[in-house]
Design brief:
With about 325 residues, this protein is of the alpha/beta class. The protein contains 11 helices and 8 strands. The chain has helices spanning about 10-35, 55-60, 75-80, 85-90, 125-140, 160-170, 190, 215-230, 265-270, 270-280, 285-310; strands at about 65-70, 115-120, 145-150, 175-180, 185, 185-190, 210-215, 240-245. The strands form 2 sheets. Strands 2-1-3-4-8-7 form a 6-stranded parallel β-sheet, sandwiched between helices. It has a two-stranded antiparallel ribbon with strand order 5-6. The structure holds thiamine diphosphate and magnesium ion (MG). Thiamine diphosphate (TPP) binds near residues 73, 181, 183, 185 and 250.
Length: about 325
């Protein structure tokens, strides 16, 4: 086969860009988990391993001035939106050189310069914030798009429904991206959700809902492109339900005993990053080119980890800064 077999609607360069972003996410996740397990970093960490393709596809479509909101399971979304590696790692380490001067940590990454507006630990809390960001863009008359990522469990939170209602009413330029990894903490999707598809809920709010295989880069890219174009053109929101799986449970202490036998092994055997690598090779991309992307990413990550480790912790005097607007104190 040759790269001419890669479907024209995505093309070689876009697929390689998705591979590059997914590789960065996978390698950062592997590095962070190994540092936590070795006791070298102490942090509350929720691995997005297995969910890489969703933000990697979105990230190739979004402009730098578009906006993203994510959750505690957000490393993949932050990296794919382009948060710089050094500042991101420093924030994960709680260092003064981090995106939030070390005062946010992994659960609160914010980097407006790259459009990563909020990371929140409040399940469902990101959706009304994203609706507000989209409303602000609409009022300013820009064509910026806001994407909010959240889990399947968040689809059962009141804030989801309130945000969808207002976004539908005001035709806000927002994409609601539900990363359905089939579990909310230890509760299986069907044990907590009244509908077979979260995407079906969009109909109640008057805009399209689409379920897509979030681990398939070509399908995910196509669905994301349509949703982003809809928002950018002023035609309003989309609820994108991207099906996926998380490889390391809810959090790092998870024993995964609540899952169906064989479910986790099957998901890991279908690793979307490995599958994309194999697809690219089968379609004529030289393995050397992919290995080159991987070794470049490894070197950049090693540099960022070193930078973060060598950076100072925030000074005690920082404790009360950035809490209130200075002029109001
Ligand atoms: C409002 C609120 N309720 C409960 C929690 C505790 N909690 C943290 S993560 C989580 C599960 C959310 O699952 P899902 O939305 O599917 O996201 P995932 O962790 O699978 O990415 C819960 C219940 C919380 N952080 N916030
Ligand atoms: Mg979930």
């Amino acid at each position: 086969m040759s790269d001419t077999d890669i479907p024209a609607e995505i093309g070689r360069e876009t697929l390689l860009s998705i591979f590059g972003k997914a590789t960065r996410i996978k390698l950062c996740d592997e590095k962070f988990r190994s540092l936590v397990l070795a006791g070298q970093v102490s942090a509350q960490y929720y691995s997005p391993r297995g969910q890489e393709i969703i933000p990697a596809a979105l990230g190739t479509l979004l402009r730098p001035d578009d906006q993203v909101v994510t959750t505690y399971r957000g490393l993949h979304d932050q990296l794919a939106k382009g948060v710089p590696l050094r500042e991101l790692w420093a924030e994960y380490f709680g260092k003064a050189t981090g995106t939030c001067k070390g005062k946010g940590g992994p659960m609160h990454i914010t980097h407006p310069a790259s459009g990563l507006m909020v990371t929140t630990g409040i399940v469902g809390g990101g959706l009304p914030i994203a609706a507000g960001l989209a409303l602000a863009a609409q009022l300013r008359g820009t064509d910026q798009v806001t994407v909010v990522n959240f889990g399947d469990g968040a689809g059962n939170i009141g804030a989801f429904h309130e945000a969808c209602n207002l976004a539908g009413l005001w035709r806000l330029p927002v994409v609601f991206c539900c990363q359905n990894n089939r579990y909310a903490e230890h509760t299986a999707y069907a044990d907590g959700t009244s509908v077979a598809r979260i995407a079906d809920r969009a109909a109640a709010y008057g805009f399209p809902g689409v379920r897509v295989d979030g681990n398939d880069p070509i399908a995910m890219y196509g669905a994301a492109r349509e949703a982003i174009e809809r928002a950018r053109s002023g035609a309003g929101p989309t609820l994108l339900e991207a099906m996926t799986f998380r490889f390391y449970g809810h959090q790092m202490s998870d024993q995964n005993e609540y899952m169906q036998p064989g479910e986790l092994a099957a998901a890991r055997a279908a690793d979307p990053v490995i599958r994309l690598r194999e697809y690219l090779i089968e379609h004529g991309v030289p393995e050397d080119e992919l290995a080159g992307i991987e070794s470049t990413e490894k070197a950049l990550i090693a540099d960022a980890v070193q930078f973060a480790a060598a950076s100072p912790s925030p000074d005690l005097s920082e404790l009360t800064t950035d809490v209130y607007q200075e002029a109001l104190i």
